[in-house]
Each structure stands twice: as C-alpha cells, then as structure tokens.
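Session log. Operator J.P. requested a structure for one protein chain; no other inputs attached. Running the standard single-chain path with token output.
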Amino acid sequence: MPRGPSINGLSIGQLQSLLQSRLGQVQKFERQRNKLARKLDQLDRRIEQLGGGRGTARRGRPPGRGRAQNAMNLTAAIEQVLKGSSKPMRVGDIADAVEKNGYRSTSANFRGIVNQSLIKDKRFGKAGRGLYQLKK
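Structure written below.
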C-alpha cells in the first residue's frame, strides 16, 4: 500500500484533515467488508441447502471431511482391545478390533497409526514379530 504524504511540517489543521480523511476510508472499507460478509453468509446458506457443509468452501476443505470425534483416544481403545484378548494380537487385527468397537478415523492408513501407537506407548509390549500385548 502506498504511503501517504510525510507528516513533517504539517500544521495541526492539516493533520486533523488527514486524520478525518483516513477515518473516512476506514469506514468505507468496513462497509465493503460487511457487505461481502453478508454475501458469503448467503452463499453458505445456499451451499448448505444443496447438501454441502456450512462454510467448508471458505476453508478450502471438501464438505464432510472433518476430523472424527471419539469417546476415547486411540491408545485407550487399543488397551481395551488387548485387555479383552487372552493372547498377543497382530497389528492388523488390533486395528480391525478397534474400529469394530466404534473408534472412527478418517485416516487412509489407520493400521500404520495403530502400529505407531503400539510402538510409542509404554503400556504395550512386543510379544514377537508383529505381535503385541499389554505389558504385565
């Protein structure tokens, strides 16, 4: 944005005039912004009526692709599955059991996330290659 004139050497009257001019510009831009916000709200309502998600177009995300909400975190869900098992389980079987118990994920590689959680959390121990169990 270009700079205005230098304020050095201006009289108080000239400074007041410059200030009033800038305040007028600010008010003009605020009116334009409010008008555009009303138009965006109208578009959001129309998108929602057509089955799209509210406000998703502005954030650049496709509708319906938010983060899944779960009652418990992933490690707690894994722990619950392993508590119910009498023997060590494979990573794929653990991932399937966690999802069967109601854990939702939008990840394309959920098995990999389960594997990382098993490796990082101290509650889980390796019982063999690809086999995990609760530590005693």
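Operator note: Confidence is low (pLDDT under 50) at residues 54-58.
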